[in-house]
Model the fold of this input.
Amino acid sequence: MEEYYSYIVVIIVTKSREEAEKIGKVMVEEKLAASANIIPEIKSFFFWKEKFYHINESILLLNTRKDLFGKVKDRTRELHSYELPEIIAIPIISGSSDFLNWIKENTR
Done:
């Protein structure tokens, strides 16, 4: 079994549930992620280009391998509507060996 740190969860914030579904589906179909989970509605507060925003967004969570992060990031930028999308990877520091093997088997 590879080290736990070989696996990551990627967080991508999108403008809508539909955009999260579109990106998530592509990531799984292209085997860049083993699975995609969506939190359909969150409230976001931030400044962008000196303007304050308070908007509804969605969160897409991807289970994948660390070595695929560059491809996930590049593909997300191709599909995402935001000029500067939030694309963050968090290492999995521990987990079920069976689940981590499943991630490995379902990514390329």
Notes: The beta strands are 7-14, 35-48, 51-65, 87-91. The helical segments are 17-29, 69-79, 97-105. The chain has one domain: 4-105. Residues 4-105 form a domain with the Alpha-Beta Plaits fold (CATH 3.30.70.120).
